[in-house]
């Protein structure tokens, strides 16, 4: 694909894609030195819509905290479909994530 093609998810939202890949790696223990317990909390409510691996934000009085990686990615992660988050390998996750993001990136043009 062309470098500036809006249908290419890698070009449409590179930070979002990279953030979501890093979250997957942290959750699945694939990122050395970053432990899930140190960065995120599971949302354990049985009444949630969507996938079963939802993350929860920690409340903060500071606006600055909302820009931290751990806070920035939670809503993006929680909005992913079950088929994406349940991928059994990093390669499968990236492929499913790209397929999910492709239609979304065309809406942002």
Automatic annotation (TrEMBL):
- Give the source's domain of life in one word: Eukaryota
Query: What is the name attached to this protein's record?
Result: Uncharacterized protein
